C-alpha cells in the first residue's frame, strides 16, 4: 500500500515563482521610492512588526503607482508615513467588567 501524500498548495513551483517575482517587483519599486536610510528603517520595522511594515510598503507602492511621490522618500518622510499608518491601525483597548450577581440573603430583609 502506498502512503498518501498531502501536498501544501503553496509548494507548487509556479506559485513559488509568482511569489518570488512579486517580492522582486515590490523590492524594485521600494528601492526606487525610498532612500537608503528609509529602506534601512523599513527593514528594521519589518523585523519587529511585519504587518505594519507590509502596510507601509503597500501604501508606498500605491502612492508610487499613482504618481503621488515626488522624488525619493527620506527617512523623515517615512517616519511621517509610519505615524499616519499607526494612527489608522491604532487599536483601542477597552476593559469591560462583567460582575456576577451573587444571591444575598440580606436583600430579603430590606423592606
UniProtKB/TrEMBL annotation:
Record keywords, A-Z: Acetylation, Apoptosis, Phosphoprotein
GO CC: one term?
cytosol
Region (Disordered), start-end ranges: 1-22
The name on file for this protein is: Programmed cell death protein 5
Functionally, this protein is described as follows: May function in the process of apoptosis.
Provide the taxonomic classification. Eukaryota, Metazoa, Chordata, Craniata, Vertebrata
Origin: domain of life: Eukaryota
Keyword Acetylation attributed: yes
Is Transit peptide among the key words of this record? no
Give this protein's Gene Ontology molecular function annotations: DNA binding
According to its UniProt entry, the protein's GO biological process terms are: apoptotic process
Q: Per the record, a Pfam family?
A: dsDNA_bind
Q: Which family does it belong to?
A: Belongs to the PDCD5 family.
- InterPro entries for this protein: PDCD5-like, PDCD5-like_sf
Amino acid at each position: 500500500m502506498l502512503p498518501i501524500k498531502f501536498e501544501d498548495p503553496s509548494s507548487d513551483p509556479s506559485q513559488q515563482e509568482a511569489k518570488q517575482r512579486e517580492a522582486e517587483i515590490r523590492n524594485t519599486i521600494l528601492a526606487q521610492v525610498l532612500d537608503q536610510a528609509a529602506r534601512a528603517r523599513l527593514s528594521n520595522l519589518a523585523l519587529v512588526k511585519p504587518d505594519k511594515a507590509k502596510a507601509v510598503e503597500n501604501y508606498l507602492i500605491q502612492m508610487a503607482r499613482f504618481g503621488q511621490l515626488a522624488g525619493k522618500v527620506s527617512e523623515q518622510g517615512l517616519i511621517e508615513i509610519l505615524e499616519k499608518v499607526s494612527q489608522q491601525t491604532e487599536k483601542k483597548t477597552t476593559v469591560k467588567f462583567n460582575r456576577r450577581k451573587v444571591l444575598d440573603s440580606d436583600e430579603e430583609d430590606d423592606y
